[in-house]
Amino acid sequence: GEEVETHATFVDHDKKRIHYRLSMFHKEKKYLAATNEVLSLYVDLNQRKVVEFDPDRIKVMNEFIEKNLSNFNKEKLYFINKLKK
Asked: Is the pLDDT confidence value at 80 over 60?
């Protein structure tokens, strides 16, 4: 019955994947209750296959990362160095 606050943190991407982290904080006591680091594939459901992002989507993701990079500490995220751009 306790309230939590959830944060989705976009970390990085390559041509076919998005790397992000989900964090859950106790709303009243302000402690980190849980985290989940995720690497998702971009799938075209018509082809039922992993495909590359459209150039427009890549642009939006790059602009978001650039705009918010100074607010993010990626020290404990491990996938980022393995993405192939």
From this structure: no
d(CA 54, CA 58): 6
Q: Which long-range contacts (C-beta less than 8 Å, at least 24 apart) are formed by 55-62?
A: 58/13, 58/15, 61/10, 61/13, 61/18
CA dist 82 to 13, 16, 23, 35, Å? 10, 13, 22, 20
Encode pLDDT of 13-48 as tens digits: 899 999 888 999 999 999 999 999 999 999 999 999
Which token pair is 1? 């019955």
Burial of 10 (0-12, 13-18, 19+ CB in 10 A): middle
